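Blinded run. Sample ID left blank on purpose so nobody reads anything into the name before looking at the predicted structure. Input follows.
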Amino acid sequence: MRWILPLALLATTAPALAQDSVATTAETAPTAAAATAPAEPFQQTIAIACRFTWECVENEPCTETEFTPDITGNAGGASADALTVQSQMVSDAETVDMTGTKQVKALSLTGGGFDARHLLSIAADGASRYTVHYADGPIVISYLGTCK
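Blinded prediction complete.
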């Protein structure tokens, strides 16, 4: 009997608490255009060919190699000097989705999954480093070269 009054109050106030404070009508409902972010004012297509001539595995001495992945994708941002990049790195071994930033001519991308994390850094002059960190081991493989 002592629970009847609190339960009755709860039952009558819950619908009032769940109501919106602003009514939504057909005229005030958001449209698909309003819900979509505007296109970034600066857009750029990414197409970069890399040539890595040195491969370094863990703490072993580096050896000469010929590893030539291509980076393709799109970049966009509010300023031409700082763009967000979404790309793919395609090589004979695999294709890796990568994201990152481009500032003027320098580029930094990261991607992959937990089992293999990829990091690519390209300096403004094209000098580049590509590193893959494997969780199994763990082991790291680094490549030194250029991307243009």
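Unblinding after everyone has recorded impressions. Confidence is low (pLDDT under 50) at residues 1-24, 28-37.
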